[in-house]
Amino acid sequence: MHDDQHQRGLRILVVDDNHDAASMMSALLELEGHRTSTAHNGLEAVREATRVRYDAVLLDLGMPVMDGFEAAAVLGQLWPAPALIACSAWDDAETCRRTADLGFAMHLRKPVPFEVLKAALRGVRPARLTASA
């Protein structure tokens, strides 16, 4: 991996109630030079994101305990707020409107091709450059 890839590496929280999907996405992102953690419901995501500053949160929407919409409402109030990227099989017009209203940077339909996700992450600005860690 080149030094410039390390400098561009983001801190990403992968949130999905499917443990295998979260682990696989996390592993792929780490191969790209990102630092990742996983959570398996919205409440875990909120707890983790208040403990560690993340540049981006990849957020499934249909999860137990606290769904992705509820988690996004809380995550969007953090300072600096991480970029929220919906990764969901739900992509009907109403769901896309809700994610847009909640401030998601984008809405990607699962299964998300990894090249599409990599392209989406290129637009994320590291939170650690805009605020103290």
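That was protein one. Protein two is written in the same sequence-then-structure order:
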Amino acid sequence: MLSAEELKTYITQGLACDHVQVLGDDGQHFEAVIVSTHFVGKNMVQQHQLVYQALGDRMREEIHALSMRTFTPDAWAKLSSGL
């Protein structure tokens, strides 16, 4: 069974990230917040596709569901500062 920490490692190995937080306690359903400069200029679908590419076959084999919120560093900074 996959842990949230292992999923975080998989994401960061496949995609340069400024911040990644993964939650999940059943080994198949996860929620992630991912901040990456690679998301700049891309819409949400394209951002999620980058994460799926980073995870590769694991999305079909190990992960049943991944809910994610993706942000550029600027968008994350604004959200984090409460603006």
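The mean pLDDT is 93. Keep this in mind for the problem set.
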